[in-house]
Amino acid sequence: MRKKIINTIWIATFICIFTFSIIQANKEKMANDINLNRISSVQTSSNQVSSNATLSNTKIGWGIKRAKNHVQPELGSKNIELMEKYNGIAMGNKDEKYVYLTFDEGYEAGYTEKILAVLKENNVEATFFITAHYLNTQPELVKKMIDDGHIVGNHTVNHKSMPDINNETIKTEVMDLHTAIYEKFGYEMKYIRPPKGEYSERTLAYTNSLGYTTVMWSLAYDDWDENKQGREEYGKSKILDNIHNGAVILLHGNSKDNANILDECIKEIKNMGYEFRSLNKFKK
Fold this sequence. Notes:
CATH superfamily of the largest domain: Glycoside hydrolase/deacetylase
CATH class of the largest domain: Alpha Beta
Number of helices: 9
Radius of gyration: 29 Å
Number of strands: 9
Low-confidence stretches: 3-10, 12-51
């Protein structure tokens, strides 16, 4: 009987040791798998950083080549390549008569209230790209833009050419304004227009990593110079003669001419069969 008990104890001990060995082996395998995953993750992250570091920083100044008879303009092969690669917005679907109205607002010259009134009267939603100076000096107008259902976009804090500054400075220029408008109005921006229309592949990739969609344009004219106002017929012809399917229209809010011709231009564009759309409904 005693011998039987001893044998039972030995068998139980063996089973315990065997089971413990299996558990330990599984633990070690799991630990090794976790470590391998961590190493793989670090290597992937390192490769991404290395890849971003090698992106071209060649400065590109946005430009378009106009076409006649309301045909879409040429944006340039490099512009198209980079906009597609980084999901940017520059020109919409060529087969749909949709157009998208945007304004750049670096500072207030006294015309935005009229612009907002015209947009409201014509039931048009636009996008306003503002700087920190504009937000700090015209918070009531920014609030009205938001309250009226327009999009407010990021034109950076100080309007610096982004290829000229490093990623850390870009982050400050973009996210300080992002934070400021969120703290004031609970509004979160998601579209950015590069200051001066200057960008590089590096800056496109980096602003994308900050959660932003870059918005360029396919229709604009020399409306920003306050010394070149009083050319209303010129402004109307530049807009109306060059309107096209998918047009992303860039106008400047500091232009007195734009404020005066906007109502007529909107009505005529609608009469031509085009539909104004928000960037939130952009169709490629």
